[in-house]
Amino acid sequence: MYPDAAAAAQAFAPARLTMARELAGWRKRDLAEAIDRTAAAVSQYELGQSRPSAGTVARCAEALGVPPSFFTVGRPQLHLDTAQAHFRSLRATTAVQRQQALAHVELLWEIVEQLDRVIELPAVDVGIPMGIPHGDPATTARTVRKAWSVYAGPTAHLVRNLEARGIVTTRIPMLDSDTIDAFSSALHGRPVIALTYKGNPMRQRFSVAHELGHLLLHPEPEPGSPRHEREANLFAAEFLMPADEIRDQLPSPADIAALKELADAYGVSTVALAYRGKDLGVYSESTLRRVMAALTRLGWRTDEPVNSGYPGEQPELLRLAIDLAAANGLTLPALAERLHIGLPRLRMLIGLTDARPKLRLIHGAG
């Protein structure tokens, strides 16, 4: 009755069920309700204390949106926990949200691992050694800018530079969270910066620079650490808005239109630029409060307009790697089959949209 599920039940991998459940953003009791089992039974499946029947495997696959073969052994699997990633706040996110985000990165690692077998991805080299703690955040930011030959002005093409230097940058789909801008992790030597779809493009650029700061300054993550978060912010601020040049360009008085113009030029939000002015001693605390109040009234604290509809920097490494792998025999459907996930999920995970034209039928034509 369930031939695929029967085979999957025989080769059942408990950790795969956990991964699929976390990808869906479900708790154990959510899955238990969906498959008409108890939460205790789901726990036993995931701990390897009991093996689900073919019927249960089939119901799990249907509920979680994966083929039954996803639950089988025989494929390398990475396990990440919260302590291995840089999350900004543990209080602002639930454990389920963090696990869902990490599960997507675990699956992303499997994609990268498969691609690495067929093509050579860029070596990890951001200009200074990774994996060791660097010192002062501002000094580290200036060192990286110099290594990238950015001697003055805005840091352009931030995401493209990171990808060319071996850091996988991606957007996490289906993550229902207003509390996660981005997070990062070093995956066995291949760092990943994962973005959500939250915030405007300028805010996301700061998030990317913030995560780069974590990767360089904090090889041992301390999720939610105020000191780590402060240092990553200092790195990002200096990397995107160098003190020696931005200090003299900040408008005085702090006119919103002038701030917006300068912020757009440097690819940062007006909020971030105003805080930079305060940190550099150009603006007083009262001036910052006045500017923030004005930006709040404009709605720019959460949804600042972007000139010319600029879509922001989009990750391309995985898409280009997929194209190159396909030219060398590993097509997208073949990759989905190797990973035992559906093609739509794979396309969504790597940021590919369905470019096929949609057929529309007109009722009553003729």
TrEMBL record:
Domain of life of the source: Bacteria
Residues of the signal peptide: none
InterPro entries, alphabetized: Cro/C1-type_HTH, IrrE_HExxH, Lambda_DNA-bd_dom_sf, Rad_response_metalloprotease
Stretches assigned to the HTH cro/C1-type domain: 17-71
Coiled coil: none
Entry similarity comment: Belongs to the short-chain fatty acyl-CoA assimilation regulator (ScfR) family.
Listed name of the protein: Transcriptional regulator
Native source organism of the sequence: Kibdelosporangium persicum
